[in-house]
Write a structure and sequence with these properties.
Elements (H helix, E strand, L loop, with lengths): L5 E7 L3 E7 L17 E5 L12
Antiparallel strand pairs: 1-2, 2-3
Protein backbone atom coordinates (compact mmCIF):
# COMPACT_ATOMS: atom_id res chain seq x y z
CA UNK A 1 0.00 0.00 0.00
CA UNK A 2 1.20 3.50 -0.78
CA UNK A 3 -0.11 6.76 0.67
CA UNK A 4 0.86 10.31 -0.12
CA UNK A 5 0.90 12.86 2.68
CA UNK A 6 1.25 16.60 2.22
CA UNK A 7 2.62 18.68 5.08
CA UNK A 8 3.13 22.40 5.54
CA UNK A 9 5.28 24.35 7.98
CA UNK A 10 3.27 24.97 11.14
CA UNK A 11 5.55 26.22 13.90
CA UNK A 12 9.14 26.59 15.04
CA UNK A 13 10.16 25.56 18.54
CA UNK A 14 13.47 26.11 20.27
CA UNK A 15 14.80 22.78 19.02
CA UNK A 16 12.69 21.82 16.01
CA UNK A 17 10.70 22.79 12.96
CA UNK A 18 7.14 21.49 13.17
CA UNK A 19 5.18 20.50 10.09
CA UNK A 20 1.51 19.51 10.08
CA UNK A 21 -0.41 17.40 7.63
CA UNK A 22 -2.89 19.25 5.37
CA UNK A 23 -5.91 18.05 3.42
CA UNK A 24 -6.66 18.59 -0.28
CA UNK A 25 -8.18 22.01 0.52
CA UNK A 26 -4.95 23.14 2.20
CA UNK A 27 -6.41 23.11 5.72
CA UNK A 28 -4.45 21.67 8.63
CA UNK A 29 -5.54 18.22 9.79
CA UNK A 30 -5.47 18.15 13.58
CA UNK A 31 -5.77 14.47 14.51
CA UNK A 32 -7.34 11.08 14.02
CA UNK A 33 -10.86 12.51 14.03
CA UNK A 34 -9.98 14.67 11.00
CA UNK A 35 -8.35 11.76 9.16
CA UNK A 36 -4.68 12.47 9.85
CA UNK A 37 -2.40 9.69 8.67
CA UNK A 38 0.77 10.87 10.41
CA UNK A 39 -0.12 14.10 12.20
CA UNK A 40 2.76 16.41 13.08
CA UNK A 41 6.38 15.94 12.03
CA UNK A 42 9.20 17.48 14.05
CA UNK A 43 12.55 17.99 12.31
CA UNK A 44 15.26 18.46 14.93
CA UNK A 45 17.43 21.52 14.38
CA UNK A 46 20.45 19.78 15.94
CA UNK A 47 20.34 17.11 13.22
CA UNK A 48 20.52 19.77 10.48
CA UNK A 49 22.92 22.44 11.72
CA UNK A 50 23.79 23.75 8.26
CA UNK A 51 20.70 22.80 6.34
CA UNK A 52 17.53 24.02 8.04
CA UNK A 53 14.35 23.62 6.00
CA UNK A 54 12.86 26.91 4.90
CA UNK A 55 9.44 27.54 6.46
CA UNK A 56 7.07 28.40 3.60
Amino acid sequence: MRKQVVVRFFDETEGAFRYREINSSGDYIHGDRDGALIGDIYLRKAAMPDNHPIPL
